[in-house]
């Protein structure tokens, strides 16, 4: 059992997993942007922030 070989496999697996998760989040955010859900959420956050500043 070569430790370096296992390490390389682990690193490449983690990189692929991160890439997959990143693209998944990207597609989800794009889908939400199309529905306008994200803008609504951002508006609510801005309102809360404005209330805090008052």
> Gyration radius, to the nearest Å?
20 Å
Number of strands: 0
Structural class computed from helices and strand pairing: mainly alpha
Low-confidence stretches: none
Tell me briefly what this model is:
The chain has helices spanning 3-35, 37-53. With 54 residues, it is mainly α.
Structure, explained:
The chain is 93% helix and 0% strand. It is mainly alpha-helical and 54 residues long. The chain has one domain (3-53). The radius of gyration is 20 Å and the shape is elongated.
Write the layout of secondary structure elements.
Elements: H1 3-35, H2 37-53
List its salient traits:
single chain; 54 residues; mainly alpha; 0% strand
């Amino acid at each position: 059992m070569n430790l370096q070989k296992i390490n390389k496999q682990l690193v490449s697996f983690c990189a692929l997993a991160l890439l997959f998760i990143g693209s998944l989040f990207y597609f989800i955010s794009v889908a939400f942007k199309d529905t306008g859900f994200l803008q609504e959420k951002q508006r609510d956050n801005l309102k809360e922030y404005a209330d805090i500043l008052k």
